[in-house]
Amino acid sequence: MIEKPANISTIMEFLLMGFPDDWMLQRLCAALFFLIYLTALMGNLLIVSLTTIDPHLQGPMYFFLKNLSLIDICYISVTVPKSIMNSLTNSHSIPFLGCASQMFLFIFFAGAEYALLIVMAYDCSAAICHPLRYETIMNRSACVRMVTASWFSGCVYGSIHVAGIFSVNICGTNIVHQFFCDIPSLLALVCPEEQILEYAFIIASLFFVFLCFIFMIVSYVQIFSAVLKIPSSQARFKTISTCMPHITVLTLFLFSGIVTYLGRDFKSASSLNLLMSVLYSMLPPSLNPLIYSLRNRDMKTALYKLLGGKV
């Protein structure tokens, strides 16, 4: 039975209604989600394994890539298994604490991934602009501190938003028009006069994200400036190609998030909403391993060795 509570403290569960009402479509979505999840899991676990056991993949870039894959595994595991189970059992409920935990973890890993992509941009900049001092700048201790800061910033980011959403009153139903608990869908349930707190958090976080984005732009301006000074066109192409996987992953991550959060109506369920949710919650973790493994010769060499082939 769908409740219509007036206060968030009286809500015991939320109803995740992001899937289509048709039984067959729900099963098809569950099958598609499972395939995407399996692809993301296998690809990221493969990268973690290769960067752990292969002695040639122990540099700063691969250390960051290993952490990116770990984040992607956690990122997609927060939402997809629960949504598949709900679809197969035809049960749409999620406990109050489960919803809060899911939202915190999702934002936590998304924030950590964004922070790590900033670190990886700095790594590219240091490698190309300061090649002689690269090992000194990106020493093991510095890399560990940067990765720790990325995970910590994601934790803080998630905590702030969960505190903002779950400390206010709800004026609508407990129906969430999404297949997982995310900020916009839950914000649509909050009383209009109390949404200002979470909107303040969103504006503040967007300002911080924008500053970080400017930092990445500055890093890439320095990279392209250094590349243009290289006399050989072949050397320029080879140098800039080392940054292409990062640029591709960063573009995919930011584009999918921006399109989703700016282009949806969160007060109603629709196939378009579901598609756009899949775009930013599943696509980056699934494609990141493919992008890095196909464009990196050392990764392909390590994979051939792992499979027992000859390079």
UniProtKB/TrEMBL annotation:
Gene3D superfamilies per the UniProt record, alphabetical: Rhodopsin 7-helix transmembrane proteins
A Pfam family matched in the record: 7tm_4
Keyword Transmembrane: yes
UniProt topology in membrane: Multi-pass membrane protein
GO MF annotation list: G protein-coupled receptor activity; olfactory receptor activity
Compartments (UniProt record): Cell membrane
Transmembrane segments: 24-50, 100-122, 142-160, 199-221, 242-262, 274-294
Superkingdom of this protein's organism: Eukaryota
Keyword Membrane listed: yes
Any single GO CC term annotated in Swiss-Prot or TrEMBL for this entry: plasma membrane
Domain G-protein coupled receptors family 1 profile: 43-292
Assigned keywords, A-Z: Cell membrane, G-protein coupled receptor, Membrane, Olfaction, Receptor, Sensory transduction, Transducer, Transmembrane, Transmembrane helix
Similarity comment text for this entry: Belongs to the G-protein coupled receptor 1 family.
Function noted in UniProt: Odorant receptor.
Record-given protein name: Olfactory receptor 14A16-like
Lineage, broadest ranks: Eukaryota, Metazoa, Chordata, Craniata, Vertebrata
